[in-house]
């Protein structure tokens, strides 16, 4: 989280704008929270340049929840196509099988260290949508450009799980029908899920879809059909404001964050590639700017590396249990100085353990 956002939230914790109450005490239908929610939606629309024919929904359930909510809303109980690029797209495909035929039309298994060429995707003629995870946090692969399904001969809308790199780079909405993401990587605390869905994809939900998860119902009620995660929306709204204020040279907002994220990722990847002590296995064409997995060539030194990192104030570097090694997550709020500190520690650890 950006420090400025946390400081402002702390200042307003007991009394939001002279209202006599904190955000967590507000009714979600009260005028005070209405101001917060309206501003948050408007700032997110401006930040991500969301077209007017898309609805922004504030929901709950996280990315895993959306793995069920998307097919409940879009599959019509028939079939959907899935591009497998790592752990999260695997979870998405398996969950969708509960509601429709979930076709695997491309995969980068077993290594998940490159992306399958869209020209080779075996897209279905009757798919209700095509799903991909545009950034895989565990495996460290990222789509640097979204595929153009129309150019591939598909009429299905593209659904992207952009949980882990939302607001780190612009989105080409001309290629997207629906995007969803948990807020807890780049936008706010856990508990809030953002769904951005095109108008024509509303009203398709299966009869068994819970009303609180029906996109049309949520849209018709401006995300207030049931009690939304008010604190999460408030913090995300502050983050949207912070992001819109960011500059990098002549750039601002998401474009500024993209330039900053490119610089942070380049610094770390260049060091790893130039070292004989560390290794990153992901093809350079699709390396994630947000999540950088790496391995010590001598994995017997892993615990010593992590212990030294903790002592240096560098936390949560242990890789996911399914892949091992290390993982540096350098989300929007991580400053360049943080990556410089990590590289400095890695250089010193290599020097003292070579």
Instruction: Output the helix-strand order.
Output: HHEHEHEEEEEEEHHEEHEEHEH
Got a strand count?
14
Nearest-integer average pLDDT: 97
Q: Tell me the strand order in the biggest sheet.
A: 1-9-8-7-4-2-3
Overall tally of domains: 2
Strand content: 15-25%
Radius of gyration: 21 Å
CATH class of the largest domain: Alpha Beta
Shape: globular
| CATH H-level homologous superfamily name of the largest domain | Type I PLP-dependent aspartate aminotransferase-like (Major domain)
Runs with pLDDT <50, length 5+? none
Q: Would you identify the CATH architecture of the largest domain?
A: 3-Layer(aba) Sandwich
Count of helical regions: 9
Q: Please describe the biggest sheet, giving its number of strands, its sense, and whether it closes into a barrel.
A: 7 strands, mixed
Helix/sheet category: alpha/beta
In percent, how helical is the residue content? Answer: 25-40%
Instruction: Kindly report how far apart the N and C termini lie.
Output: 35 Å
Question: Which fold name is given in CATH as the topology of the largest domain?
Answer: Aspartate Aminotransferase, domain 2
Question: Can you describe this structure?
Answer:
- The chain has 354 residues and is an alpha/beta fold.
- It folds into two domains: 3-245, Aspartate Aminotransferase, domain 2, CATH 3.40.640.10; 248-353, Aspartate Aminotransferase, domain 1, CATH 3.90.1150.
- The protein has helices at residues 3-11, 31-47, 62-74, 87-96, 215-220, 230-245, 253-274, 302-311, 336-353, and strands at 54-59, 79-84, 101-107, 130-133, 135-136, 141-142, 158-161, 178-182, 193-198, 247-248, 251-252, 278-279, 291-296, 326-329.
- The strands form four sheets. A seven-stranded mixed beta sheet has the order 1-9-8-7-4-2-3, with helices on both faces.
- Helix 7 packs parallel to helix 9.
- It is globular, with a radius of gyration of 21 Å.
